[in-house]
Design a protein that fits this description.
This protein is an alpha+beta fold. Helices cover 35% and strands 20% of the residues. It has 10 helices and 12 strands. It has helices at 13-22, 61-79, 112-121, 138-149, 161-179, 182-190, 204-207, 249-268, 278-281, 283-292, and strands spanning 3-5, 34-39, 42-47, 83-89, 98-107, 154-157, 192-194, 202-203, 238-244, 272-275, 298-306, 323-327. Strands 1-12-2-3-5-4 form a 6-stranded mixed sheet, covered by helices on one side. Strand 4 (83-89) and strand 5 (98-107) form a beta hairpin. Helix 1 (13-22) runs antiparallel to helix 2 (61-79). It is globular and about 55 Å long. The N and C termini lie close together (9 Å).
């Protein structure tokens, strides 16, 4: 009979490759809110509801964005070795945690762009440190916008000073509201792991220094004891908002794929990126941000881009710890 197993069999090289890429996706507080189920050459992506941040992400919007990023990584990793995948999003209407089913399909010519994106999966970092004041060239900015559009999302670069100032004000307001919320502070503390041995959460080395007083942007501070002084950040940051055209779970999964393609494109161009999550996590500032952008699309992610020193990687749970295998283990009469 067919039974499920929680100890891994010898995985096909393709499935192992795909899952190794999937777990490198970004997630809020490095919570890694995904699970995978494997049957032969089929991979099911599931939302791990126990890892959804109940305070900052009660509706699991950011968790679905992260799982969308994991889906994009799987697709890219397979294309880079000459295989296609058939992807069905939300395949089971009776299981809202069942986000996607990917079936590995036939051979496909390997494009250099796919190989480059696949290499970027292991190099991408969230860089919360100061960037230089070197501006991004127009060609790189266009490539980021096109990367989002390729997945059906919209990346709006806040290149007008008035828009950037307005975003910075929303960022400060959202940061203030969250810092005054004891439940938010407690949740953030649970996912701030210092330099311990956990395979999730945000370690001290990834948190970044506090900006100097008067800095335009307010970055999230992970409450790790540090004697490091405040640092000046870039004077004219490039900030972008990734939008979806609706705000359903399906749209969020697609936006997550667009987000990851943007991040991998930035990595390939030698550009660092970090998340400015606060304005889209607080309902009142998310509404205000949508109005700032014209009121038609739904802001999902706010990103800061620039040139900086390489940031350290954050740890990930192993493929084995987040995957369940289904298969024929033995036959009983």
């Amino acid at each position: 009979m067919t039974i499920s197993r929680t100890t891994p069999p010898v995985l096909s090289e393709l499935v192992q490759l795909a899952l190794d890429a999937a777990i490198r996706a970004p997630s809020p507080h490095n919570s890694q809110p995904w699970r995978f189920e494997v049957t032969d050459d089929r991979i099911d992506v599931l939302l791990d509801k126990e890892r959804v941040l109940s305070v900052v992400d009660g509706g699991a919007r950011e968790a679905r964005l992260s799982c969308g990023a994991a889906i994009l990584n799987i697709r890219v990793a397979l294309l880079a070795v000459g295989r296609t995948s058939l992807v069905r999003l939300l395949p089971d209407p009776d299981r809202d945690e069942h986000l996607a089913r990917l079936s590995i399909r036939g051979a496909h010519p390997v494009a250099p762009a796919d190989m480059a994106l696949a290499r970027a999966i292991g190099l991408r970092r969230s860089n919360r440190r100061p960037f230089t004041d070197r501006p991004l060239p127009a060609r790189v900015r266009r490539a980021l916008v096109e990367a989002a559009a390729g997945e059906g999302a919209e990346l709006v670069l806040l290149e007008r000073p008035g828009d950037l100032d307005a975003l910075a004000a929303l960022l400060r307001h959202a940061e203030h509201l969250q810092s005054e919320d004891p439940e938010f502070r407690a949740e953030l503390a649970r996912w701030t792991v210092g330099d311990g041995g956990r395979d999730d959460g945000v370690p001290a080395v990834a948190g970044g220094p506090r900006p100097e007083p008067g800095s335009l942007l307010t970055l999230r501070h992970y409450a790790v004891p540090s004697s490091a002084p405040d640092r000046p950040y870039e004077r004219e940051p490039l900030v972008a908002v990734l939008n979806s055209y609706t705000d359903t779970p399906l749209a969020q999964l697609r936006a997550g794929q667009g987000m990851q393609r943007v991040l991998l494109t930035a990595t390939n161009a030698g550009v660092s990126a970090s998340f400015l999550c606060q304005p889209v996590e607080v309902p009142v500032t998310r509404i205000a941000l949508r109005e700032l952008l014209g009121g038609k699309a739904h802001p999902q992610v706010v990103l800061r881009f620039g040139y900086g020193f390489t940031a350290p990687a954050t740890r990930r749970r192993t493929v084995e710890s987040v995957t369940r295998w289904h298969g024929i283990e033995e036959e009983h009469p």
